[in-house]
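Fold this sequence, please.
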Amino acid sequence: MVYNLYPDVVHENDLSPDDLGEEIDEICEEIHQACEGWGTDESGLISALGSRDAETRTKISMRFPELQDGKELKDLMKSECGKKNFGTALQFLAVPPHKMEVKMIQKACDGLGTNELMLYPIICGRSNEEMTILKREYFDETGDDLGRVLDAELGGDLEKLIFNCLQGCEEEFDEEYHNEELVEADVAAIHEAGQGSWGTDESGFFKIIIARPSEHLEAVNDLYADKHGYTLFKVMENEIGGIVGDACLFELGMKLRAYQTIAKLIKKACAGFGTNELLLTCCLIRYQPILRGVMDAHEELFIKSVEDRITDECGGDYEKLLLEVCAAAGCAESDE
């Protein structure tokens, strides 16, 4: 299934509730105290923001300017903690998730060249509803149409894949429509687009993977493996290479194996020489609502916990903040 990442307050567009509660005011005061006077109490900020779920952080970001003479929380985090890894992570935590993703997209498109590895996980594997919210928020924040921005940043098959994802066109599962006959037709179409012909029809893959719901793709995956000896994942690996292949696998993975797919992205952020801190930050904060399942999948896949990977790859207050985000995810899902 495709998971929603935004809290109810964002889905309901209830971004100015009358009463946010005393707890939110108390957290805002903790943040103010941590930044008051000479120096910054980084531990206080880690506790106040890193330990909260997305809905609470959304409410904090809404309430903070009301209590601090219009001072935006994200601006305070930037002035107090700078633009390096720790400060960037706090700035992401200081805004609602849909606004955070707008900032992440802007970072991915900033400067010479596009950070495609950071960009495609934000666009691929989204629910229709959250894609609509993200596109609307991007326009509200920047005055630009997200599709046009990415059209200028990308090209070739990756642009086609991203453009299709932006449409938010996943079908709602219908047992009568998504039946055995359609499963067989999709298996035949995928085979013809790849293994069954010379060359690869990437657009044929994109159309089916993006439009079909998870329940239907599970059936297509099973039948394809029975008929041709390969899962859809293996077909994508064999037929589509490079960053386009990675993005296509991510889209498919978010529909069929979301926890494992995100766990692999976290590992990728830490692979090779040096850590891709920006990608790691984005992964842990964006996926915090489902991070407990991701952490379990990561340990099962790689015999290593996400926390140990953070400890190995990061340091200082940045490490402490990411560990706090993980701890909060575990507590939230345990409470459910």
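The domain at 100-166 is CATH 1.10.220.10 (Annexin V; domain 1). The mean pLDDT is 92.
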